[in-house]
Amino acid sequence: MTELFRKYLKKYKEFILYVVFGVLTTLVNMAVYFALLGVFGETYYLWFNAAAWLISVLFAFVTNKLWVFESKRTDLATWLKEGIPFFGARAFSLLMDMGFMFVTVSLFALPNGWMKLASNIVVVLVNYIFSKLIIFRKA
């Protein structure tokens, strides 16, 4: 059984690490979001959502680059080659996140916390696809 576990762990290492760091990125995102809500109230929740996005994307870029997709080159050209599309893809997912939050919270008055969690789940999946297929693809 241990050998089978190791085989699957090796085969799915990248995806497992992506999920682990995706959960951590989501926690960073939600912690920043709810900390700002706690300090300033809900009036500017979309601004707080954008701030949480920026901080969590910085965290995600570093963890994805170094540990998930193991992109070892650290020269400026590589950081830009990977960073620009990474932030571009995340900007797309930010628009998805902002739209989802606006529709569900502002228009339908659904619970803020649950909608933030639901949005983050979709965003993590979309971001994995962009990262795997476009940004950190193996040459």
Question: Key features?
Answer:
single chain; 139 residues; mainly alpha; 0% strand
Detailed description of the structure:
The chain is globular. Helices cover 85% and strands 0% of the residues. It contains 5 helices and no strands. The mean pLDDT is 88. By secondary structure, it is mostly helical. Helix 2 runs antiparallel to helix 5, helix 3 runs antiparallel to helix 4 and helix 4 packs antiparallel against helix 5.
* Topology as a string of helices (H) and strands (E): HHHHH
Mean of residue pLDDT values: 88
**Beta-strand proportion:** under 5%
Low-confidence sequence ranges: none
Instruction: Enumerate how many helices there are, as a single number.
Output: 5
Radius of gyration: 17 Å
Structural category is mainly alpha
Summarize the biggest pleated sheet: none
The overall strand count is 0
* Share of residues in helices: over 70%
Question: What is the distance, rounded to the nearest whole angstrom, between the alpha carbons of the first and last residues?
Answer: 34 Å
What does the overall shape look like? globular
Task: Explain the layout of strands and helices.
Layout: H1 2-11, H2 13-40, H3 45-68, H4 76-107, H5 112-135
Summarize the structure.
This protein has helices at residues 2-11, 13-40, 45-68, 76-107, 112-135. The protein is an all-alpha fold.
